[in-house]
Design brief:
Distance between the termini: 44 Å
Radius of gyration: 20 Å
Helix content: 25-40%
Order of helices and strands: EHEHEHHHEHEHEEHEHEHEEHHH
Number of helices: 13
Number of strands: 11
Amino acid sequence: MSFSVEELRLPIVLAPMAGGPSTPALAAAVGNAGGLGFLAAGYKSVETLREDIEQLRLASPEPFGVNLFARPKRRGDREQVRRYADSLQGEAERYGAKLGEPRFDDDGYDAKLALLLQGSVAVVSFTFGCPSPAEVAGLHAADASVWVTVTSVEEASRAQRAGADAVIAQGIEAGGHRACFDDGAPAEELGLLALLRQLARDCALPVVATGGIMDGAAIAASRCAGAAAVQLGSALMLTPEAGTSAPQRTALATPAPTGLTRAFSGRLARGIVNRFMLEHDVSAPRAYPEVHHLTTPIRAAARAAGDAQGFNLWAGQGHALARAAPAAQIVKDLDAEARRVLASQRAFIPGSQEQR
């Protein structure tokens, strides 16, 4: 029997944060606390993903999920990418790095999917697109549930037709990459509350809410708006188990604004506004993953140098509310806070026990 959202002891899911923050230790801590841990397969080789899965199984007996990037469907314009590369030469010189090769690839999709089809992963989620019905059927045969990240009712309908078991509703508040199926023609950019209410009316699948959820009150609000569970990313990036870099940890703790940009990867993503974003956003082309590969050496060098102005600081709009504490403590505290908030609201309901 495939894992269902309703089986969660606590309605809290770890967001798969590719590029460093997601670790087996973080996934294990969330799972052991009663939530659902997740591993991010993005930007990893299939061998590294296999090792992460093995480490997580050793660290926790609880079910967990793995997230895949759907195959990119559109190559970027080569001339636009070339011009953007020329504009980044100064950045490469600043950090003593070389520009990466702006190649078009699918992040090892087939090999990673084949690994997950071997079984014993409770949930496989997808972002940037929807798996085919045949792929969903294969994962079901491997006893995995399939969740698809969506940003609109239309995307949720496609996921439902493909056979998905649940959708992850990503509001515009969310940090990191936008999950829209077509980055070139995204749907209306909906906030989480509006998206949840539309899905409550038009989607029959269980919904996991994500985007700007940082405390128990936001969890309670999401549950009231129709979510079966919530997915937390930025709220767990300051935990000791997270692989968040030191300069990003410092940036997360500030009230700095966030913005959407293609400057780092060629795909729209939300991060804390910094110098690189301000200087290169306007000229960045829609070209993912070409721009991601192009800027990878620059970002790695800036990160190694501790310069938060030179690499992507993915974070949601509520990032300043993040707490530095063990992941298990945060998960349990937020769940308890959400329950208190929900209980307190009964006093506002006419005829409730508190008013008698």
